[in-house]
């Protein structure tokens, strides 16, 4: 049923902005179909918008009423070069389809975010921040090469040698700015052996003191394998500290580092600490949805 298929493809999780209704959806199953779509749309002046995970807060991935959305979900392959620690990812893959099999089947990681339904391409081309960022950089920093269909329907491979200016522009310019990416090659890394979580909670009334301590703490020499996040909710503040446990490092020492960092903040009567192996950490940080992609 075309109507129900359109409704399914047009699901939009963000309800604060009115639902967008593009003229049509096209779900390419190959790079050649992406090229054909571009060559067809150009003489008709038909706007094309590539969509990965659909997590754009402004709903840019859903285009407008006069345009066609290229839903890239079928281009979700994951090819690993184990010797070079590289991964080639289809542009329609979501994080859960990358992070979990990359680690569980190949023993590698690459810096990504934590929501498993976010598209890897939008994340990578726009930056990409996560628990491994302080250790390995943003997701975009790990891009080695891109396959991209240009506005004239030509497939190009973009890397620092073939087109350094365009490669530089694509890394941070966001998806769809210069062409439609069909695959990315990313650098992989050996995973940590585990992680230590530390949490401290405060009433909102302590925001000035907690935020002052937060700013002071960021000016100090913190370990690169440790990430820190301060969140403000309606009823409380949450300080989250995550320290990767590296090969050869004792878990007790990693936990001591987390506790020392939290001790710089106002005293809290609500703290908790957790030590996990990397498999359990990945599953927990991906909200358990990653299990669907085993």
Can you tell me about this structure?
There is one protein chain. With 294 residues, this protein is of the alpha+beta class. The protein is 29% helix and 25% strand. The chain has helices spanning 2-9, 31-41, 95-106, 120-126, 133-136, 164-173, 207-218, 251-262, 278-285; strands at residues 24-26, 48-51, 68-71, 78-81, 86-90, 143-149, 155-158, 180-187, 194-203, 226-232, 236-245, 271-277. The strands form three sheets. It has a five-stranded antiparallel sheet with strand order 4-5-8-6-7. Strands 10-11-9-12 form a four-stranded antiparallel sheet. A hairpin with a 3-residue loop joins strand 10 (226-232) and strand 11 (236-245). The protein is globular, with a radius of gyration of 21 Å. It starts with a helix and ends in a 9-residue tail after the last helix.
**Order of the strands making up the biggest sheet:** 4-5-8-6-7
Order of helices and strands: HEHEEEEHHHEEHEEHEEHEH
Annotation, overall tally of beta strands: 12
The proportion of strand residues reads: 15-25%
Helix content range of the residues, please? 25-40%
End-to-end distance:
30 Å
Structural class: alpha+beta
Features of the shown structure:
single chain, 294 residues, alpha+beta, 5-stranded antiparallel beta sheet, 4-stranded antiparallel beta sheet, 9 helices, globular, disordered C terminus
Topology, please?
Layout: H1 2-9, E1 24-26, H2 31-41, E2 48-51, E3 68-71, E4 78-81, E5 86-90, H3 95-106, H4 120-126, H5 133-136, E6 143-149, E7 155-158, H6 164-173, E8 180-187, E9 194-203, H7 207-218, E10 226-232, E11 236-245, H8 251-262, E12 271-277, H9 278-285
Parallel strand pairs: 1-3, 2-3
Antiparallel strand pairs: 4-5, 5-8, 6-7, 6-8, 9-11, 9-12, 10-11
């Amino acid at each position: 049923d075309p109507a129900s298929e359109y409704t399914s493809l047009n699901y939009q999780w963000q309800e604060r902005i009115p639902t967008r209704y593009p003229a049509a959806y096209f779900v390419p199953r190959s790079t050649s179909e992406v090229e054909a779509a571009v060559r067809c749309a150009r003489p008709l002046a038909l706007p094309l918008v590539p969509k990965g995970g659909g997590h754009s807060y402004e709903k840019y991935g859903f285009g407008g009423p006069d345009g066609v959305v290229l839903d890239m979900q079928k281009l979700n392959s994951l090819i690993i070069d184990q010797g070079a620690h590289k991964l080639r990812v289809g542009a329609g893959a979501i994080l859960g389809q990358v992070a979990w099999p990359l680690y569980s089947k190949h023993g590698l990681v690459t810096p990504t975010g934590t929501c498993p339904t976010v598209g890897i391409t939008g994340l990578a081309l726009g930056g990409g921040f996560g628990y491994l960022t302080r250790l390995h950089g943003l997701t975009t920093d790990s891009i080695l090469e891109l396959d991209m269909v240009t506005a004239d329907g030509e497939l190009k491979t973009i890397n620092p040698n073939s087109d350094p200016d365009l490669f530089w522009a694509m890394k941070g310019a966001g998806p769809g700015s210069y062409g439609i990416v069909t695959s990315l090659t990313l650098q992989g890394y050996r995973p940590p052996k585990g992680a230590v979580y530390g949490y401290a909670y405060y009433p909102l009334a302590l925001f000035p003191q907690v935020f002052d301590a937060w700013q002071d703490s960021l000016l100090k020499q913190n370990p690169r394998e440790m990430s820190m996040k301060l969140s403000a909710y309606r009823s409380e503040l949450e300080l989250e500290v995550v320290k990767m446990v590296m090969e050869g490092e004792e878990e007790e020492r990693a936990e001591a580092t987390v506790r020392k960092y939290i001790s710089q903040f106002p005293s809290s009567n609500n703290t908790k600490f957790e030590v996990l192996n990397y498999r359990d950490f990945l599953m927990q940080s991906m909200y358990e949805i990653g299990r669907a992609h085993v």
